[in-house]
Structures are given as structure tokens and as C-alpha cells.
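User: Show me a protein chain along with its predicted structure.
Assistant: Here is one chain, sequence first, then C-alpha cells.
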Amino acid sequence: MGSGSESATDVELLRRIAGGDTRAVAELYDRHARMLMALSLRIVRERSEAEDVVHDAFVVVGERAAQYIPERGAVGAWLVTLVRNLSIDRTRRRDRRGAITRDVLAHDPEATAAATPLDPETEAASAAERERVRRALASLPDVQRATLETAFYEGLTYAEIAEREGVPLGTIKSRAARALTALRQALGKE
């Protein structure tokens, strides 16, 4: 790897952000915004709201960069969790106000993601990581995969999933635990 911001790892960028380097925020944004936008769009289902969520997430990153602990997971996973939680919070607030509609997605996250060009190396790495996660999810039994997807994308609690599916809470918790264990193992093998 060469020197300079082009070769900085995500962890190095967070350290620079914690030190007040706004260029590091821009670089981290360039690396992850496309994927985060697609995730948020899948949850909030409105492009302008998804854009707001991703913006808010990077404001939070600026505020919390010094709190990041590398041993707890990758920066990308931290960002995904942050955007997921912000997206779910926004959707729940909208639900409480009664303003949310249940229409089909107005935008295809893949098409939205394709609108922002990335350099070929970053594009290949992002595509490879998405495919790796898809393969790992596909290796799970259907009920386990569905439980994780419902919890992650819809933001339902295990109790809410159990109620919706008409099964005991313990069954949902067991499915989720087995699914997460299997997912970690599948991702660890690659």
C-alpha cells in the first residue's frame, strides 16, 4: 500500500476523524455511502429520507469516532448498524405520526447505488463483500434467514416477530441465535 489518504484503512480514517480531519469524513463517506444509502432506502423507502439518514449517520460518526473499538467489529459493520438503527428510528417515528404508507419501494436500491460511480477497486471489493454475505445468508435454513431479515430490515423485535408469525418467543430467539451462529461460521470460512 502506498501512503496518503488513498490507502488509509477505515480504522485509520476514524482516528483522523476523531482528530477533526474533515477530509477523512469525506473519504469514509465515499467508501461506504452507496451501500449505506441502499440499506437505508430499503428500510425507510423514500430517497430523501434515506439521504437524510446517511447524512445524520456521518454526523454521528464525526461525534463518536473516538468511541469506536476495532475489536468489536469492522468499521463497515459499525456504519451498517448505525444506519440501520437510524433508519428504523426514522420509520418508527413516521409510523407513530401515521404518515407512513405501505407502498412498494419507489426506487430500486441497486439502481440508486449504480448512480454513484466508484473506482473499480472499491466497486469490486464492495461487490465481493455483498456476494459473500448473500452466500452466507443463502446457506441458512429459510426460517432462520427470514427471522434475521425481518429483524434487520423491518426492525421488528423478536417478540414482534413471534406475534406476527404466531409462534412462541423462545422459538424465534432460538432461530435467531442459530442463524447468527451459522452466519458467523459461514462468513468465517470464506
